[in-house]
Specification:
The structure is a single chain. The protein is α+β, with helices and mostly antiparallel strands and about 160 residues long. The protein has a 4-stranded antiparallel β-sheet with strand order 2-1-4-3, covered by helices on one side. It has a two-stranded antiparallel sheet with strand order 5-6. The protein starts with a strand and ends in a 24-residue tail after the last helix. The protein is about 25% helix and about 20% strand.
């Protein structure tokens, strides 16, 4: 008798492992469940990619299902929440506009914390005002050259003036 370690729900469109569950007495049938767009796969010793996959969190974060080979393949951690793995190119892809929207929000937040400097009765020196003016302009201009980073951490942010450190 084959021991089922867990039930794996895979997004049929992308191959992403969406859920790992303990087997139950009333397990659904293995295969494609078109009504929910998921494929259910029973993970056993025969299709367990590596022993460490018995740690379900590790398995769910590092493995995707390749529909062409009908196997789980280790692809590593997703670089961002929008990324999907493309088995044909062995690479991660993501919609650039989603990442750009995150960058825009972060940039806008950085501008927001400097807004008080634009009030005429602030206590900044002329030199500090000029540093803030340059910093704010760099923040506004950066969206034209940001490229397609995977995460906010990959963005080259302007250095804020010392008054914000």
């Amino acid at each position: 008798m084959t021991t089922i370690h867990c039930l794996v729900y895979v997004d049929e469109a992308t191959g992403r492992v969406e859920g790992v569950h303990t087997p139950t007495a009333n397990m659904p049938e293995e295969g494609l469940h078109e009504d929910i767009g998921k494929r259910l796969i029973k993970l056993t010793e025969a299709n367990l990619p590596e022993e460490k996959c018995k740690e379900w969190g590790y398995f769910q974060m590092n493995y995707w299902f390749n529909k062409t080979t009908m196997t789980f393949e280790k692809v590593g951690l997703r670089p961002n929440d929008f990324a999907t793995y493309d088995f044909s190119t062995d690479s991660w892809t993501w919609p650039k506009e989603e990442i750009l929207e995150l960058i825009r929000r972060e940039r806008n937040g950085r501008l927001l914390v400097t807004d008080w400097t634009q009030i005429s009765d602030n206590s900044l020196t002329d030199s500090q005002r000029e540093q803030v003016r340059i910093y704010r302009q760099e923040l506004r201009d950066m969206m034209t050259s940001v490229g397609n980073p995977a995460t906010l951490a990959d963005v080259s942010w302007p250095t804020p003036p010392d008054i914000f450190k």
